[in-house]
Each structure stands twice: as structure tokens, then as C-alpha cells.
Amino acid sequence: MTNATRPRLVVERWTDPAAADVLAQSDIDIVALDLTAPAEDGWAALESAHGYQVATRTDVARASDGAQWLATEALIKRCPSLLAVCSAGAGYDVIDVEACTRAGIVVCNNSGPGAEAVAEHALGFMLDLAKKITVADRALRSGPIGDRMALRGSQLFGKTLGVVGLGAIGGRLVELCAPFGMEILVFDPYVDQAAAAARGVRQVNLDELVERSDFVQVTCPLTKETRGLIGKEQFAAMKPTAFFITTARGPVHDEAALLEALVSGEIAGAGLDVFHEEPPRHDNPLLQLDNVIATPHTAGITAEAARDIAVATATQWQAIFDGQIPPRLLNPDVWPRYCERFHEILGIQPTAQAATISSTRT
Fold this sequence. Notes:
Layout: E1 8-11, H1 18-23, E2 29-32, H2 39-46, E3 51-53, H3 57-60, H4 73-78, E4 84-86, H5 97-103, E5 106-108, H6 115-131, H7 133-142, E6 160-164, H8 168-177, E7 183-187, H9 193-198, E8 202-203, H10 206-212, E9 215-218, H11 232-237, E10 243-246, H12 255-264, E11 269-272, E12 292-294, H13 303-321, H14 335-346
Parallel strand pairs: 1-2, 1-3, 3-4, 4-5, 6-7, 6-9, 7-8, 9-10, 10-11, 11-12
């Protein structure tokens, strides 16, 4: 970037060292955000930053007052040179998108690279719950097995799967379930009937999905629209033999209502990768139930996904600081104002025109 300001990128950590390898030859200053260091050190880095790879909620939970490092309006006001913020994965609930748009900051996520890992994890939950694998394992380890018929499970073949959110993860899950001959229902207001039909699924409203599904899979992002989407009414409408599974974000469902539904027998069980509080407390009542299997937000954590996400993250930052359209831009309406600020702050003009931009939100 001759005759231009050298961009400064603040990163809490990469999912894999491959990101640093990709950016090694780029003309970008990369500064680490140490969540365990004094707060003034972090602010010293961020207040002069042009880009910020936002720490996850699970990351900031490790630090005292860690929420200050999420991309909220308060952080944005303290960082006048900030041009772009990106989330580490598909979820972007750690970023106040509206506040960023008002400030002329582009927002990106990293949907796509981790979809395979999360979709496979979701399928694993389905198989585990249906076949009672974890239940049988616990019984076997706790003492002599009496009547094995008490551990009788069910099969996926011919069952009905309801997918809430047909993005990269939901779409891949649909593909993985094809060999099981399942009927697949989808609720996603951003997917039209034609697109649903092309995937071999049927678009329905949420009420029909929860009433008819044997497995309700939540794979949508956490937004104002989806917060509290699955609550007491939806759990009450599910079959008593149905399973609730989520690899999305905890606040998409009502945790207290889920607990009540599981304890009362309104639903058969749940597979949970996310919670309202992460990591969940050891005494979280959901973790005390035999009909719940859980993982600590690790659905997307595989060696392959970590590397793919790191490479995608790094190449997206290269595109941003080269003045290109980020491949996973979430707020395209910001582009004209962003271009003005980009030129003012870094001294170069982004090459793309606003008319060429389209949102890639999934």
C-alpha cells in the first residue's frame, strides 16, 4: 500500500496457525488482543485498529469483564479508526451490526468453512438420541445391565426432520440425511419455495414444523428475529417422542421452557451444543437429565474446520484491506459510507461500486 496508511488488525486468536501463514506476506500489522492482560493494554491496541477479528462469547467468558471486547456500540465509539469487524465463525451475535452500519463499518462473518463440521455434529446428535447411545453407555458404566429392551431406541429411516434455518449448515445437514429417506421440513423466511424444492425439502411455517417433526434441528443465526424463537409454546406442540437439537446459539430457544418440557415428558430428549451461559455451569439442571446429551459449543471444532475457517478468515481480511468486497459481507448498505471512510483513513479508494454488492448472510 504505497502512499497509504498501513492497516492494523487486532485479533484475539486464530482458529489455526494457517491464518498467520496466509497473512505473513501481507502489508498488515497484526496485533494480538490478550484477554488476560490489563484492560488498558487491550484498549491501546483497539483504539488505533482498522480491523477487529472479534473474540467469541466463550473466549471473553475467560476474562473478567470480558464482554467489553465484543463489538458493541460502546466499543465502536472508542475505536474511531475501525473500518471492519469480523466474527470467527458463522454466528455474528458478538457484533452489533446496526451500530456498525451507522458508524460506517463493514461487518463480516465466516459462514461456510465450518458447515461440514457442524452439520456432522448435528447428525451425530440425531443418531445418538435415536439409538440411545449415550444412555446405554451411561447404564453400562454404572452397573450390571438388566433388561436390554429398556434401552430400545429408534431409527432415523422414514422419520421427519424439521430444520430451522436453511443456511450453509442446515443445507449440508439436509444432504447428510438424504440416505435415511427422511421427510424434511424447513422453516426459513429468507428461503423461497423454489429454493426449498430444489433441495428436496418443503418450506412450512414454524408451527407445522414443530408439530410434525421427529427431530427439530436449530441451525439459524442469533438475531433480533430469532432470539427466543423456540419457547414454551413450540415445545408444547412437539410430539412426546420428538427430540430437540441445537447447534445455533443458546438464546434462540428458551432454556427454562426446554427444561420444563424435558422433565415433564413433553418431548423425548435434547442434544445441545449451545447454552445461554457459556461455558454452562456444572450444576446447570439440563446437564443433570438422562435424556440430554451435550457438548460445550464444539460442533464446529474439528482439525479440518479450524484450518478452513482460519484460511477463509485470513483471505477475507486480505480482501478487505485490498479495497475489495468482502466475500461474506453482512451489511451491504454500509458500502458508500464505508468507502468514504476507507479512503479518509487508509488513503486508498475501494475498487468495488455499491451497485455490485449483494448480501451473503446465511
